[in-house]
Amino acid sequence: MMRIIPTLALVLCAVGLSMPAPAAEQGQAAPSAQVAPSAQAAGAPAADPRVALLKLLPAGSKLEDLRPSPISGIYEYIQGADISYLTADGKFFIDGNVYDMGTRENLTEALRTHARSAMINAVPESQMVIFSPKNPQYTVTVFTDVDCAYCRKLHSDMAELNRLGVRVRYMFYPRSGPNTESWKKAEAVWCSANRNDALTQAKLGAKLDLTKACDANPVAREYALGQNIGVRGTPAIVTEHGDYLAGYMPPRELVQQLKDLQLAKR
Known about the structure:
The protein has 266 residues and is α+β, with helices and mostly antiparallel strands.
């Protein structure tokens, strides 16, 4: 996420263009309204203000990434689960939360949770490693690193989590990044005949065959997804509604958190 947004003039200079000089400075008379009637006067639709704003944003940004916020004159800029704001005139970029003073609701966090939930729900469960009780009461998605100590601690609690009604859907997030040992371990787990058992053994420190490979393993996609939803460490736990819980929690504490969040949604 970009933290400092350049002005439109700087963007134009960066691509070798310059702002046009006023007509008087160019030694020309300003055109009259009769000579150059406005587009609106001719009945043409007004230009979308987002087109100009898009030039101030990082390469790859799209019109649909910008939409009007609840505050007049301010647009929401949405990149994955990263939400920021831009004034309609392009002069100010705002990084922070917006609250509804009537309800005290964090409107920005509501957008984040919706975005996380939508992105995770777009992934088929066939691309996850799932540990589930027969009749789960809660489902969480956990971004995990095979070598992370607290990820291993969470996994050691799996029997208790399942007993308490928690269904755990694992996605891979090797914190060390691509082409590292942790990354290769994640791929080896996925390419195993029994992924659940392989993941458990890997988290116990068992030696894996790092040469094992298979087509279409999801490690790279899930790592990129984790970055998009804002994973900064592991384990990163995301609820069904998209709430983000960072770090390890003992099973009963986690269940209480899930219960409280579920009640808050009602």
